[in-house]
Design goal:
Blueprint: E1 3-11, E2 17-21, E3 24-29, E4 32-37, E5 44-49, E6 55-64, H1 66-87, E7 90-97, E8 104-108, E9 113-117, E10 126-129, E11 135-138, E12 145-150, H2 153-166, E13 180-188
Antiparallel strand pairs: 1-6, 2-3, 3-4, 5-6, 7-12, 7-13, 8-9, 9-10, 11-12
Length: 192
């Protein structure tokens, strides 16, 4: 079953400028600029102005299947994440979990990489480089907490995943050995 036309619009907040060029969307705001490519989606992107003079982004799909129609909302969510990134920024918090050997982490390379030592008492030094535009800090107030900041939600969450995956327990019962570094909180840098 194909729908003749399905479309959705979203408001563009003040202080954010959006450019659309051949399914490549550029979002610029107070915190910087983010670019995202939607060329793999069979959708039309258009900047429109409503009767009150407010700018909006309109995404539409002609004669789309159910999957194409579902992709409209997905694309809007991605653009919303870009807008949040350039206005508020993303902040993920991670906690060290250990039963016996305290995990020791040192941040190097101008807050761009982290070295993890003494995980399960191992001598190996685990080094994780953050993805582009992501910074990692030790939390001052909370013991054993890392704070990762950045504008792009995908890069921040993938950096968290890289840290998490470096601390997997091998050849043990993972129900008993719960040591590792886990994401404890996801939010924005500027709190509402």
């Amino acid at each position: 079953m194909k729908t003749i036309l399905s479309s959705e619009t979203m408001n563009i907040p003040d202080g954010v400028s959006i450019k659309v060029n051949a399914k490549v969307i550029e979002v610029e705001g107070p915190r910087g600029k983010l670019v995202r490519d939607f060329k793999h989606l069979n959708l039309d992107f258009e900047l429109i102005t409503d009767e009150n003079g407010k700018k909006k982004l309109k995404i539409e799909s002609w004669f789309g299947s159910r999957k194409t129609s579902a992709a409209i909302r997905t694309a809007l969510s991605h653009v919303e994440n870009l807008i949040t990134g350039v206005t508020k920024g993303y902040r993920y918090k991670m906690r060290f979990v250990y039963a016996h050997f305290p995990i020791n982490a040192s941040i190097t390379n101008d807050n761009r990489s982290i070295e993890i030592r003494n995980f399960l008492g191992e001598k190996k030094v685990r080094k994780v480089d953050m993805l582009q535009g992501v910074t990692v800090l030790r939390s001052e107030k909370v013991k054993d907490e890392l704070v990762l900041d950045g504008n792009d939600i995908e890069l921040v969450s993938r950096s968290c995943a890289l840290i998490n995956q470096k601390c997997h327990v091998k050849n043990k019962d993972i129900r008993k050995f719960l040591d590792g570094i886990y994401v404890s909180e996801k939010g924005t840098i500027l709190e509402e």
